[in-house]
Amino acid sequence: MLDSPRASHKTTLATIAASAGVSVATVSKVVNGREDVSPETRALVEGLLAAHDYSPPSARRPNTVNATVEFLIDGDFSSYATTVVDGVVEAAREAGTAVVVGLMRDQRMGRYPVPPRSWARSLAQTGRTGVIVVTGELTGAHVDALAAVNVPLVVIDPLNMPRREVASVGSTNFTGGMSATNHLLAQGHRRIAWVGGPPGSQCNQARLHGYRAAMESAGLAPAPEHIVNEDFRYDAGRRLGARILAGPDRPTAVVGGCDSIALGIMEAARTLGLRVPDDLSVTGFDDTELAPMAAPPLTTVRQPLREMGRVALRTVLRMAGGERLDSHHVELATELVVRESTAPPR
């Protein structure tokens, strides 16, 4: 006699997906009530879910009080990441939820130390309600692995977006890049360079597009050698800044893709005997705690980092509770903060 499908209490979305001949993401959409699934596929998946007596974790765990959310930093504990986690912890305290903070990978290793399936299983086995990843570069395999064990995912300022349906929280990066550049243009600068983060990073690309749009609106075409991208790190800003500032037709201003890059550019200028802002104006992006402590204090684009963390925590708890999201991407407004690192060119 064959065992009934109901006999198994370990049915996962992967089991249903294999039986239906569809992806785990498709099964997850049906479970979460998403509308972007064909009626035929929905009926097939719902039939299999019923046959296996499947109930999502949200149905077995109706509230998130005393739940635990994993907050993962994909790289180093930067000032940016620690400010975001402050917001996550604040919102978690209000919700009665615990937060575990860790590194998803050591940036020096260059790759993830644990295979996606093993990583996801470990999170599920330790009772994680959800996962928040900041500035991560996840793959489709990571997303599918989490869906298979019913652990919701929210990403903050991701370097890439492995799936359109992944919930994300960010800021108005395009507008921020444009506002920093327009500020320099309004001061009279015309030779304005750009030093950004990873070329494939979505937030970096949006900021760069904002810079380009502002320059184009002013009728200016930056020299190709004045636009460089590498990494959101101080060392990259110092190295690339030195290259640009030592070259011919030196720019009078530089837009940095983040505060760490901007501080590196300022150090490169100091090493070359240039004064900020007398000889060079510099802007950053993020408004981390380092910006007002710089010498001189850094003009930058403020991201609402704490609020981004709070929104991410609330979103992952809503997902864990089975709530459907009105939008999978939330953008919070940026704001230009003018300090002392920018001035009209001399």
Automatic annotation (TrEMBL):
Keywords: DNA-binding, Transcription, Transcription regulation. SMART domains: HTH_LACI (SM00354). PROSITE patterns: HTH_LACI_2 (PS50932). The keyword Amino-acid biosynthesis does not apply. Residues 11-64 form the HTH lacI-type domain. InterPro entries: HTH_LacI, LacI/GalR-like_sensor, Lambda_DNA-bd_dom_sf, Peripla_BP_I. GO terms for molecular function: DNA-binding transcription factor activity; transcription cis-regulatory region binding. The keyword Membrane does not apply. This is LacI family transcriptional regulator. The lineage of its organism: Bacteria, Bacillati, Actinomycetota, Actinomycetes, Kineosporiales.
